[in-house]
Amino acid sequence: MKITAFEGSPRKNGNSSLLLDAFLEKTAVDAVVKRYRTDELELKPCRGCLMCNVLKHCALRKDDWEKLSEQILDSDVVAFATPIYFHHTTSSMKKLLDRFRSFLHVQITEDGIIHKTHQKWNKKFILLTAHGSSSVEDAASLNELFDFIIETLGPENSIERINAVRLAVRGQIGFDLQQLEKTYVKLGLPAYLAVEDSKKNAEWLATAGYLAENL
């Protein structure tokens, strides 16, 4: 099994990164895993030139997308871990996702746009998000984008996701109960929430591992 994983947090040991750690730690021992931090990648922004319609690959060259696109196509599993910033993913992760346009042929019609893939896709996608907000609705825009990506790439693809909420402090998902109570007091949240949230945090980490074990 080949797994390509992208970590979108600009902060090391952030909550989404810890979710990705929990996922990758439980992957099969013979899995070939390649992990990247998106803010360390050299990626040019998509120009919307649609030259990928003709070339069947991105027209922008001499950056990391040449290598990454080949690895993505060769992977069985593609995982994305990101915090939610301003109701969406981070800017470095968005730049990566925008380059997925090059996997598609785009036809403009009088009623909209028709997307067709250049290659057949049959992959498992994993989306792991961490929100400072208490509501999963703050990740709705990103979830809708991934729904669109999966649908566009074809019915043979599937996605599993974890949307972990109320994680405003780096590493908070791994805090013990006492640490979490102190954090909530500093954030102005009721300390009693820490009891249930401590269990939820542990469940999210365990679920990330479960997803890996059941690929």
TrEMBL record:
<dbReference type="GO" id="GO:0016491">
    <property type="term" value="F:oxidoreductase activity"/>
</dbReference>
<protein>
    <submittedName>
        <fullName>Flavodoxin family protein</fullName>
    </submittedName>
</protein>
<keyword id="KW-0288">FMN</keyword>
<dbReference type="InterPro" id="IPR029039">
    <property type="entry name" value="Flavoprotein-like_sf"/>
</dbReference>
<dbReference type="InterPro" id="IPR005025">
    <property type="entry name" value="FMN_Rdtase-like_dom"/>
</dbReference>
<feature type="domain" description="NADPH-dependent FMN reductase-like">
    <location>
        <begin position="1"/>
        <end position="145"/>
    </location>
</feature>
<dbReference type="Pfam" id="PF03358">
    <property type="entry name" value="FMN_red"/>
</dbReference>
<keyword id="KW-0285">Flavoprotein</keyword>
<dbReference type="InterPro" id="IPR051796">
    <property type="entry name" value="ISF_SsuE-like"/>
</dbReference>
